[in-house]
Amino acid sequence: MTGAVAKVDSKMLENSQSSNAVQSLTGKVAGVQISSNSGQPGDPPQVRFRGIGSISSSNAPLYVVDGVPFNGDINSIATQDIESISFLKDASSNALYGSRGANGVIIVTTKKAKKGQLKVTYETKIGVNSRSVPEYDMITDPGDYYKTVYNRIKNGLIYKGTTQAAASNIAAQNLINGDSYSLGYNNYNVADNQVINPATGEINPDAKLLYNDNWAKELFRNSFRQEHYLSISSSTDNLSSYLSLGYLSDDGYTINSGFDRATLRANIDYIISSKVKVGANVNYAHTNQKAPISQVSSNTYSNLFNWARSIAPIYTIWQRDTNGNMIYNADGSKAYEFNKSGNRPYGSNMNPYATTLLNTNLNEENKFGARAYISIDFLKDFNFRYNLGYDLLSGYYVNTATGFGGDAEGVNGRIGTATKNNYTLTNQQLITWKKTFGSHSLDVLIGHESSDYTSKMLAGQKNNIIIPDLTNISNATTYSYLDGYNDLYKVEGYFSRVNYNYKNKYFFNGSYRRDGSSVFAPENRWGNFYGFGAAWSVMKESFFPKTKWITDLRIKGSYGEQGNDNIQYPKTSQINHRSYFGSLRNYYAYETQYEILPDAEGNASVLYVFDAQRDVKWEKSKNLNVGFDIVLFDRISFEAEYFERNVSDLIYNFPIGPSTGTQYVSKNIGDMSNKGVEINLGLDIIKKEKIDFNIWANATHYKNKITSLPAAFNEGISRFEEGAPAYSYFLKEFAGVDKTNGDALWYKDEKDASGKLTGNKLTTNVYGDATTYLSSKDANPNIYGGFGTLFRFRDVTFQASFAYQMGGYMYDGVYQNAMYSGSDNIGQNYHKDVNKAWTVDNPNSDIPRIDHISTFQMTTSDYFLSKSDYLSLQDVSISYDFKNMALKNLGVQSTKFSLMGSNLALWSKRKGMDPRLNNIGERSNNGQSLNVYGVTKTVSFGLTVNF
């Protein structure tokens, strides 16, 4: 092997508790950063090979299943069906995949029958899901919240010149009712103006709490997970067959969320003659995903995580009377509080607990994948193989919003529904020549591949629901919209590969591929990609000393180029006919695009939605890899590799003047590089028949830099500038707190009398006057990886694995939102740190004054940049292989009992902040904390029986 390849076998996947097998490998593969996009069961992870490879195109790797590129979701394949997963990280190993291998290749090989008698395996896992990361340190006690708001109002009045005594009285009098900043709710049995004693600033000692609804407790709860799997395999001299059935029910820890999957797989290989072999495998999966926040943004009221963090702990889930008693509906059910009276200033007419239970957000999909081949040996050393792959996704999606309350009450509820059918047909024709002559071995491959992808979508929405619980779109009467589209995408490639070795000591390989993609204009459609590598087994040289302590040593290197054609629409694209699933990949980047919209009378109007650039071409990735592998004492294995990943002709959705009718155009605008090292360490401390003790660790370090860019540009709080890393933060710099009045201070550039910059910095308390600077901090981590151990004593095995990240930064917008200052969002909750902010009694605080009038005190700046370092306990398991002769007499060959836990602990800069959810190389919100479905912790009991 001359390239950078990491292989994970089925043993490492045995204790996986994720619906996606790749998700369970977080921290286990050097050079590959696997992180959770979401804890929503059924959602895929984010995977990045050796940094980011694009700033506007996709950074997702190519998946290959049983030798054929896979255009589907790996969660459609049961983890128990997987024999191995290989990660191809450099151009020597993945250049053969051409245009689709630029961001790395993940090869999934499914299980086949092994020679021998009939084998039957049954496996089950039963467990509990819960929230893995605790909430930010938000205020949860109503009394603490009232005191915090009282102090906030008091601080603002003092800042405006009111005396401290008068400010205390005014804040206490108007806390509940009486002014625009009043909270509107009183949870205590005393008068509204008597909740706080202005003399002490404490809750009235005579006040008794009447109610305290805990939103987080009701929205997030422990849930049940179960998994069952049965496989049957048999192999004879000519026929090998493998059949499996699987079922997974994975309830989420948020209400009304979860993922169900039923799978069927059949793998068959048949030897027709000594020269002809055929085979086929099919995989079917039926999945149902309930995802209540899948179509909501981070800061909307209907986002359960945003609501649970932001709603003050004084507001109720259910309606209460003046004495705090629950109010019930006529049918005896609790009456939800939608705040239709308007007393609650936060989230008018909203109750996400109620609407999440009353609404439907269901994604139902049928996924079918088939692979077939015929292999024919001819002449003496030649082989012809034809591979055929077919992937189908057929989906039905329903999204309803209740008319009893929430944002759909005004239209008496709405029903949205969509269907989607994706088809991919892949053909491969391969001719191989293998020849050994003397000490020389040669393996030559030439081939052709074509892939045709079609996607068809139809979506519609109607308002005014007639029967409350019926989700058929015909159950609503008022037409809202009906949209659809067809996408076509074709890739064709011609390729060749040569492998050569001499005496199993010198290894060389080279590959070449010419790809054509329908994404580009005909004059730019074809790209040429290649890779070559060499390896040297130093141990086999006669001059190398024969020692007991070096048992293997190999040096390797490779270089190659690949292309990327995965162009995406700008994140702000408003393309109505794609609105249900969002505007993602652009399959027609070289064509000017329009859509037809009806006016109020049904007449057609044409809207200009995308500006074409026919000269947009392949984004190219040039990869260099040099390294060595060494084994010491037959116990210590060490791998080290240096890599360079240089990307040229970066595709970016470049902003243009709005007068053109659209805001962006796709262009090739610059170059970028990732340079780094990765290491792998394995140590067998004990290797004996009855006891094993192994520890392992890996680390990847890289530096990203934009090496060429015509002009710098901004994207949100990030800036792309030549010489700086991608996703460098571009923010105003916080300069501290004015100790005299608590004002936040920022830096600004000093100018002389003529208006020229002097190179010095001044401070200002006027946010608009502050200078925005390119920060030395960026979202890319410096080091990431994992470590773990395996200890086996007789039939008991203990395993544990950790993942970590160091060196990057993320903008903690969730924390910023919980520290807000100003007149907006009255009734919103706070982080407990607000009580450490500047006051006249706490003038040395490093947190600016927080009050009800000063809007810019806690606004966007580098104050909210936090290290994205973390250490997570990913997996722990203990298993016992039970062996009993009585069971063997009954046909039971082996039985294993397991207790396993996943995502058990996280240590990060701030409680509640999870750097694993940090986007890198996505369409938006890169480097920012968001209100998203957090990682799920799972503890399960497992049983495996082999017959």
Q: Any chance you could write out the topology, listing elements then pairs?
A:
Elements: E1 5-9, H1 10-13, E2 32-35, E3 46-49, E4 62-65, E5 68-70, E6 82-88, H2 91-94, E7 105-110, E8 116-131, H3 142-159, H4 164-173, E9 196-197, E10 202-203, H5 215-219, E11 223-235, E12 239-251, E13 258-271, E14 276-290, H6 304-310, H7 352-358, E15 360-378, E16 382-401, E17 414-437, E18 440-465, E19 476-502, E20 506-517, E21 526-537, E22 550-564, E23 593-598, E24 604-610, E25 619-632, E26 636-648, E27 651-655, E28 664-668, E29 671-687, E30 691-708, E31 713-715, E32 718-720, E33 728-732, E34 734-737, E35 744-751, E36 757-764, E37 772-778, E38 783-793, E39 796-806, E40 809-811, H8 813-817, E41 865-867, E42 870-882, H9 885-889, E43 894-908, E44 936-946
Parallel strand pairs: 4-7
Antiparallel strand pairs: 1-6, 2-3, 4-5, 6-7, 8-11, 8-44, 9-10, 11-12, 12-13, 13-14, 14-15, 15-16, 16-17, 17-18, 18-19, 19-20, 20-21, 21-22, 22-25, 23-24, 25-26, 26-29, 27-28, 29-30, 30-38, 31-32, 32-33, 33-37, 34-35, 35-36, 38-39, 39-42, 40-41, 42-43, 43-44
Describe, in plain words, how this protein is organized in 3D.
The chain is mainly β and 947 residues long. It is built from nine helices and 44 strands. It is globular and about 100 Å long. The mean pLDDT is 92.
